[in-house]
Design a protein that fits this description.
single chain, alpha+beta, Aminopeptidase, 23% strand
């Protein structure tokens, strides 16, 4: 089994992350659009609006990423992160990259003084749920999550 290395992404990684982000979006039934994926990531990175961690195999090939968005918890009066995107290339699944990215996200968030990480996933995404629960994440049984689309997309 190959060794997985995780690290913070830089702007120099943009062209390697964009195809993974495009594949992530396709997983969620979005039309392929590599240019959109690249420009979205570039904008988030340039504005400092997200933190992207990448996973590389032992050859240095990028095989996955996770994207964290900073936010705040008013009740705890502390910063938090939303782990919004997590994706591992299909051919690299089962090697531990998802687990490594989850651990890297936790380490990063803790190093910034964040109070917690949060995420949501599709009810049908049982593979991801199994990973999250194996990493000590607890499903919220106290709150419902609502959303309201603001434009047609």
């Amino acid at each position: 089994m190959s060794r997985i290395r995780t690290r913070l992404a830089t702007m120099q990684d943009l062209d390697a992350i964009a195809p993974l982000f495009d594949a992530y979006r396709r997983f969620y039934k979005q039309a392929p659009d590599l240019a959109l994926a690249r420009s979205y990531l570039q904008e988030r990175m340039q504005r400092g609006e997200s933190v992207i961690l990448v996973a590389e195999d032992d050859t240095g090939r990028m095989i996955g990423f996770t994207q964290l968005y900073p936010t705040f918890c008013s009740v705890r009066a502390a910063p938090t992160f939303v782990l919004y995107d997590l994706f591992v290339a299909p051919e690299a699944r089962g090697a531990g990259a998802g687990r490594a990215l989850m651990q890297a996200a936790e380490t990063y968030a803790a190093s910034t003084g964040a109070a917690r990480l949060e995420l949501s996933t599709a009810r049908t995404n049982t593979v991801a749920q199994s990973l999250y629960e194996s990493q000590g994440w607890a499903r919220d049984e106290a709150f419902y999550v609502y959303n309201k689309p603001l434009r047609n997309s």
